[in-house]
């Protein structure tokens, strides 16, 4: 496979994953969130059930524990486009994939060792 | 494993940012010295692929899910632990600022856990197991698993210092969940390495002299 084909194939694979992810991804809390909810009594260690009310209370309690109430409004919160459903999630992950490709290309271009 | 802002007190978060910035500076020095211009498209594709696959949360038992981090893969393919730092820093910046995934004040801790630990454990784990066993895909699996598990253990220690988790429960829960999620990390690292080396056998920065 020549270099250009490899790059295009790589972007294609990334975009296929990006489009599929919102349909396939599990909505369960991730490992850190799950540990947090378990420790803060919103879920048991090996249990499937999340107590939504206790989860909300846990998120308020942890701010009191750390005192870090910094809040940031991201433009595409939690991989969604505000006001859109699953299509918005696909759009968000695709935008992110293309954006990170562009940023990584630009930053590595600037920081790379110049070819002689 | 993206720590949100509320989990770490602000002064501690600043300390992690300072440590992270030191590793980012070292990663930029690595890029200037060792990352040739011809590698730029590969770095960009790896970053895009890692971002996309991080959005794919795979269910594990116990009402939990986990996703690939990818620092080990970047470090193995690009031949330096600093490649993991470089790529994951970019991914975490976009995730934090555009998608609100991972905090802003605590981003330094996330860069340390996923980029630095992921990159270093991934790279040196791969080297060590490659020499020991001689199979690069087994080495990639073990290195991927270990990179994720040790990231989670460090995360539990940071959150214990923060007062957010008790140390014993934090280690048990973070370790338990991520021992399983590590299988996802190891598996995708090995598969991606296989696909990349099949498509471009010349691509590994330092040929290991081992066969798959």
UniProtKB/TrEMBL annotation, chain A:
InterPro entries reported in the protein's UniProt record: PDGLE_dom (IPR025937)
Record's keyword terms, sorted: Cell membrane, Membrane, Transmembrane, Transmembrane helix
Pfam family for this entry, one: PDGLE
Transmembrane stretches, start-end: 90-112
Top-rank lineage group of the source organism: Archaea
Subcellular location: Cell membrane
Annotated PDGLE domain residues: 5-112
Protein's name according to its UniProt entry: Cobalt transporter
Organism listed in the record: Methanoculleus frigidifontis
Automatic annotation (TrEMBL), chain B:
Any one Pfam family match given in the protein's UniProt record, by short name: CbiM
Keyword Repressor: no
Membrane-crossing segments per the record: 6-28, 40-62, 68-94, 106-126, 132-157, 169-196
Keyword terms, alphabetized: Cell membrane, Membrane, Transmembrane, Transmembrane helix, Transport
Gene3D superfamilies: 1.10.1760.20
Compartments in which it is found: Cell membrane
Database matches in InterPro entries: CbiM/NikMN (IPR002751)
Membrane topology value: Multi-pass membrane protein
UniProt xrefs under PANTHER family: METAL TRANSPORT PROTEIN HI_1621-RELATED (PTHR34229)
NCBIfam families: PRK06265.1-1
Protein name: Cobalt transporter CbiM
Lineage summary: Archaea, Methanobacteriati, Methanobacteriota, Stenosarchaea group, Methanomicrobia
Annotated gene: cbiM
């Amino acid at each position: 496979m020549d270099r250009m084909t490899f790059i295009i194939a790589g972007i294609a694979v990334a975009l296929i994953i990006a489009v599929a992810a919102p349909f396939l991804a599990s909505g369960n809390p991730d490992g850190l969130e799950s540990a947090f909810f378990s420790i803060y009594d919103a879920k048991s260690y090996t249990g499937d059930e999340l107590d939504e009310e206790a989860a909300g209370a846990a998120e308020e309690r942890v701010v009191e524990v750390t005192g870090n109430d910094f809040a940031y409004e991201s433009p595409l919160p939690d991989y969604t486009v505000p006001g859109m459903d699953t299509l918005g999630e696909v759009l968000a992950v695709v935008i992110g994939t293309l954006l990170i490709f562009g940023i990584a290309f630009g930053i590595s271009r600037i920081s790379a060792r110049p070819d002689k | 494993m993206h720590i949100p802002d509320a989990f770490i007190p602000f002064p501690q978060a600043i300390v992690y940012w300072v440590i992270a910035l030191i590793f980012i500076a070292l990663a930029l020095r690595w890029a200037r010295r060792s990352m040739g211009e011809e590698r730029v498209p590969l770095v960009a594709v790896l970053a895009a692929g890692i971002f996309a696959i991080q959005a794919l949360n795979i269910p594990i038992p116990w009402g939990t899910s986990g996703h690939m981090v990818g620092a080990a893969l970047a470090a193995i393919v690009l031949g330096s632990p600093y490649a993991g730092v470089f790529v994951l820093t970019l991914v975490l910046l976009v995730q934090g600022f555009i998608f609100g995934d991972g905090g802003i004040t605590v981003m330094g801790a996330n860069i340390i856990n996923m980029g630095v630990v992921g990159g270093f454990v991934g790279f040196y784990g791969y080297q060590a197991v490659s020499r020991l066993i001689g199979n690069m895909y087994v080495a990639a699996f073990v290195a991927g698993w270990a990179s994720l598990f040790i990231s989670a253990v460090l995360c539990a220690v940071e959150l214990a210092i923060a007062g957010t988790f008790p140390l014993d429960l934090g280690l048990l829960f973070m370790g338990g969940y991520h021992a399983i999620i590590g299988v996802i990390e190891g598996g995708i690292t090995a598969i991606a390495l296989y696909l990349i080396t099949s498509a471009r056998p010349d691509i590994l920065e330092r040929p290991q002299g081992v066969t798959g």
